[in-house]
Amino acid sequence: MDRSIYIGMTGAKQTMQAQAANSHNLANANTAGFRADLHAFAPEEVRGPGYASRVNAVNRGLGVDFTPGTMQTTGREMDVAIQGEGWIAVQAPDGSEAYTRAGDLQLTANGNLVTGTGHPVLGDAGPVAVPPHDELSIGNDGTISIVPQGQGSEAMALVDRIKLVNPPLEELEKGPDGLVRLADGQEAEADAEVSLASGVLEGSNVNVTTAMVNMIQLARQYETQVKMIQSADDNARAASELIRGQG
């Protein structure tokens, strides 16, 4: 009976973890530039003293789905999207350099350029700061130009250039904060070949239909495993009573 309970218990635990990962993807279906996490079940032998007769069904992360999201035309001058491959460099909460495809840019009250989630956008010399202005435009190469406040269009000036990078995908890993970094901890070099489209926003690459189907399947799988535990417990109780009755 203990083997049945063990199988049901370990399966239920891993199913809960898979459901959490799937729910995280689903919750970010409308997050700009979000990249879905990949996961799957895999057998893992439980090592220890005695005969190796226990195997866990473990939910393992398989990396990140780097498939591009859908491009949405917004017309907003601060919305930008990477055309093709590449990433926007931002400053992570710990101060390190990280990368994102989220182009929903905003200006803080102090003129700092940040993403929709508040990560400072990096330029040629650190976080980008934009002086007071009447007009602002972002070029395909990431250059930020403004018409200073109170001046005419002939006074347009270059403020900074957004750092755009394009490291090999196999060298990237996604952190718990949703940002992507080089696996070796280094900083990628700026790539002049990466191009931006202004007035366009890249959406999440989460397939909502697939995520919903996975959620239903995992819920049913969890229910089956819980019933297995209950059945094993009921059988164990019945056996114990039978033995006591014979005694």
Automatic annotation (TrEMBL):
Subcellular location, principal: other
Flagellar hook protein FlgE/F/G-like D1 domain mapped to chain residues: 81-145
Species of the source: Natronospira elongata
InterPro entries from the UniProt entry: Flag_bb_rod_N (IPR001444), Flagellar_FlgE/F/G (IPR020013), Flg_bb/hook_C_dom (IPR010930), FlgE/F/G-like (IPR037925), FlgF (IPR012836), LlgE_F_G-like_D1 (IPR053967)
Cellular compartment(s): Bacterial flagellum basal body
Keyword tags: Bacterial flagellum, Cell projection, Cilium, Flagellum
Residues annotated as domain Flagellar basal body rod protein N-terminal: 5-35
Gene name, Swiss-Prot/TrEMBL: flgF
Domain of life where this protein originates: Bacteria
Protein name: Flagellar basal-body rod protein FlgF
Electron transport listed as a keyword: no
